[in-house]
Amino acid sequence: MSDQGWRPFAGSSLTILHTDDDPMNLRVVREILTAFGHTSRQALSGREALDHLGREAFDVVLMDIHMPAMSGIEVVRRLRASVGPERLVPVIALTADVLSRTRAEYLALGFNDFVSKPILVSRLIQSIARAASTPVRPIGRTATG
């Protein structure tokens, strides 16, 4: 697989990995994504998300920030530092803690966007469309490699 393992958004169905330690959040977001024609996979932990990303290609990842054992920030740090094509998948931070970091800080950490909880459907779908259509450059790497 080339470094272009992600598939650009063209208004078609996307395959999205949603990671959250709360099963209710996973269910609600899965219903939203399905209603918009997307395929949703779920992970209940950061470790599970990294396992999925190592085995399967995703167009976008939705990542809860506050999870036990491994935070969403740590998942993205490891993802962007990896050597496989999965390091290029767009990742959107999801959190109810909107006061701890700004959108710019999430972008500097390697996320492509930030959506606050409770999730507004229109904001989530717009963020997914933007993230899926924008190539990712891993932190610490130049444009040539």
From TrEMBL:
GO annotation (BP), single: phosphorelay signal transduction system
Keyword Phosphoprotein: yes
Superkingdom of origin: Bacteria
Record keywords, A-Z: Phosphoprotein
Pfam families named among the record's database cross-references: Response_reg
Annotated positions of the 4-aspartylphosphate modification: 64
Phosphoprotein is among the record's keywords: yes
Every Response regulatory domain range: 15-132
Protein's name in the database: Response regulatory domain-containing protein
Organism name: Phenylobacterium hankyongense
